[in-house]
């Protein structure tokens, strides 16, 4: 399984490409904050933990950018409830 994570600033989303299919988290950025709006995982990637891998990578990117986090996406909210080590990002 080939995986590539990237911050696609042109389309305002974090992407995880897996075997040619792309899962993504749409965001809105300001100089100080990033708002995660919506997560989408293609059906062919479903049931493989791709959403969780994407969430970890996206939250790691937010941490690396030093921005405060606002979460509007229900999937990311649920992920953070199960993984409280990311709660320090909330601003």
Structure, explained:
The protein is an alpha+beta fold and 91 residues long. The protein has one domain: Aminopeptidase, CATH 3.40.630. 27% of the residues lie in helices and 36% in strands. The protein has two helices and five strands, in the order ββββαβα. A five-stranded mixed sheet has the order 1-2-3-4-5. It starts with a strand and ends in a 9-residue tail after the last helix. The model has no long low-confidence stretch (mean pLDDT 96).
Strand residue percentage? 35-45%
Give the integer mean of the pLDDT values.
Answer: 96
Model regions low in confidence, pLDDT < 50 over at least 5 residues? none
CATH superfamily: Gcn5-related N-acetyltransferase (GNAT)
Into how many domains do the coordinates divide?
A: 1
CATH architecture: 3-Layer(aba) Sandwich
Q: Give the spatial strand order of the biggest sheet.
A: 1-2-3-4-5
Element-level helix/strand string: EEEEHEH
Rg (CA only)? 12 Å
Structural class, judged by helices and strands? alpha+beta
Helix % is 25-40%
Q: How many β strands by DSSP?
A: 5
Examine the coordinates and then state which fold CATH places here, giving the name of the CATH topology. Answer: Aminopeptidase
Question: Could you describe the largest sheet, including whether it forms a barrel?
Answer: 5 strands, mixed
Shape: globular
* Total helical segments: 2
Pfam family, one: Acetyltransf_CG
GO molecular function: acyltransferase activity, transferring groups other than amino-acyl groups
Domain N-acetyltransferase: 1-91, 6-91
InterPro entries: Acyl_CoA_acyltransferase, Gcn5-rel_NAT, GNAT_dom, GNAT_YJDJ
């Amino acid at each position: 399984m080939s995986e590539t994570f990237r911050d696609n600033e042109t389309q305002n989303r974090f992407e995880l490409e897996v075997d040619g299919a792309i899962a993504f988290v749409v965001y809105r950025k300001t100089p100080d904050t990033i708002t995660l709006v919506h997560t989408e995982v293609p059906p062919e990637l479903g049931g493989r933990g791709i959403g969780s891998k994407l969430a970890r990578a996206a939250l790691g990117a937010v941490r690396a950018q030093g921005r405060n986090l606002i979460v509007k996406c229900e999937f990311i909210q649920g992920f953070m409830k199960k993984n409280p080590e990311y709660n320090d990002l909330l601003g």
